[in-house]
Amino acid sequence: MTSAADTSELAAFAPSPEFTATANAGPELQAAADEDRLAFWATQAERLHWHTPFTEVLDFSDAPVAKWFVGGELNVAYNCVDRHVLAGNGDRVAIHFEGEPGDTRDLTYNDLLTEVRKAANTFTDLGLVAGDRVAIYMPMIPEAIVTMLACARLGLTHSVVFAGFSAAALRSRIDDAEAKLVVTVDGQWRRGQAAPLKPAVDEAVDGAASVKHVLVVKRTGIDVAVTDGRDLWWHETVDKASGTHQATPFDSEHPLFILYTSGTTGKPKGIIHTSGGYLTQASYTHHNVFDHKAGQDVYWCTADIGWVTGHSYIVYGPLSNGVTQVVYEGTPNSPDEHRHFQIIEKYGVSIYYTAPTLVRTFMKWGRDIPDAHDLTSIRLLGSVGEPINPEAWKWFREVIGGNQAPIVDTWWQTETGAIMISPLPGITATKPGSAMAPLPGISAKIVDDDANELGAGGSGYLVLDKPWPAMLRGIWGDMDRYRDTYWSRYPEQGWYFAGDGAKYDEDGALWVLGRVDDVMNVSGHRISTSEVESALVGHHGVAEAAVVGAADETTGQGIVAFVILREGVENTGDTLIAELKAEVSREISPIAKPRQITIVPELPKTRSGKIMRRLLKDIAEGRDLGDTSTLVNPTVFDTTVFDTIRRP
Ligand code: WTA
């Protein structure tokens, strides 16, 4: 891209004067952050209600474990619910719930408060006390959000497990956090069918020593087994509980949630987030990046609460700001591809935050579908989860954003807790595909292997060189892994290594290029290669497996696996491949199922025995192989199997 093209592009996507005139974020934010970063964050913390004021903004003496807003006490749920009721906004709709079969339910802040109080009373009756862990395995229904908030209200640490994960994945997360309670549903609606969920929980908790109770919301009415003494129905407990409950404050550093995410090794990491700093940054970013105006906007983040985007931009950020938001249970093509656009039209959605993979799917379906709807309510669009390609960016803006809505391409991670790099919609002239710059108060650098900072035109690793309020506080039960994973790459500098590659273009705009480690990004979901490899090796027929992420037009990356069979195991072709895919679904989730599995006689290895993934990726993406001379078995590529993959 030449400089001249960049400049005209910047002019093309500059904020309109009308947008700027009413934007929440003005240039004073950056000025204040530049002048005194910690004082800036102290000001942002005033967005929240503190039962006890903090005495120190940041204590990083125990680095890399930070303490933010030291000495402060607050109740996260009080900030997300009670506060709005007390301010006289109890009648405002908090959640427009749209069930997949078409059932709907509006919950006002008054309703939400009553529900959260009832759930909190029920959890207390079950003997749970602050610090206990609760696993949540639920689809996108209001009770899932109520459960998270009830946990926050009582100082219980929740661990939401995406309802698309398998029983085995749920079990390992329950065990790791020693959860005492699991909250779930009988089943969930998926493409017009009631898909059972409770049986997966029964399988997961069988023999799980920590679990005392399973609380079940009746969502679909399908028949499920009930274990006496352990299982309880939501409608027989929560619905009948008292709606009175006083929120008590917790320390700013009280653990709010654990969220498991994939790393470079097989075992998922339980990322720990705490209260005051996390909520401050979630609230600040939601207000400024989305330009959210309480009482006016209708906001819709299409994520699932099973991911961090659902935590920070459906639950904590938006509700702390008194949002009115849409929560939709189902898939975008149920009953047909019009669903999202019908919902936007029906509720007058003004802020729409989604993932590039969905934008590309909409593009594939064709613009006739969105064009059949009145989308003029939309005034801002957001993107998250993976780099958004310029073509999808432009389509998103033109077709969904009526050629006028600013797009905020937000870079962040489960670990960062909240948005870190993004345009500010009233200020930043954007470039399609670039996340542009760190937000005021956030510091990021692009550096090379030797910790040299790169400038315009430079390409290297993305690091966060200063602590931020919503940063993770560790990995549950494994603080060594925390130090090792994120802080050991640049130990002298004390930088956080994000695992992403990035570059500055000639104008200094920041482009995130994708993971530089063995983490794949499939439809915005993080999946580690070794997690899938160990699931494959779990199959009795498999001796060895190598997995790579290959470029995919719709999903960003697709999972491609190469498998060596054990001696004497018969290659039954499609039958075996189907079995292997099922094994991955069972061990992890259908989202981790390889797009392609190829049985091979050998894998390319270096002399030290390391599988050369780079070569496998080249093969999977149909590229010519470069220098293979360092392979111990260079002839591996001569075999016909590899040849067919190379030239499909
Ligand atoms: C990628 C999701 C480019 C990145 C919030 C990161 C992005 C990983 C963007 C975190 C973006 C997320 N542009 N890449 N706007 N947003 N990523 O933990 O590789 O599920 O490291 O958090 O997604 O994924 P996670």
TrEMBL record:
The keyword Transcription does not apply. Signal peptide: none annotated. Keywords: Acetylation, ATP-binding, Ligase, Nucleotide-binding. It holds the Pfam family AMP-binding. Its EC number is 6.2.1.1. Residues 29-80 form the Acetyl-coenzyme A synthetase N-terminal domain. GO terms for biological process: acetyl-CoA biosynthetic process from acetate. The keyword Manganese does not apply. One of its GO terms (molecular function) is AMP binding. Gene3D superfamilies: 3.30.300.30, N-terminal domain of ligase-like. GO terms for cellular component: cytosol. Belongs to the ATP-dependent AMP-binding enzyme family. This is Acetate--CoA ligase. It comes from Rhodococcus koreensis. The lineage of its organism: Bacteria, Bacillati, Actinomycetota, Actinomycetes, Mycobacteriales.
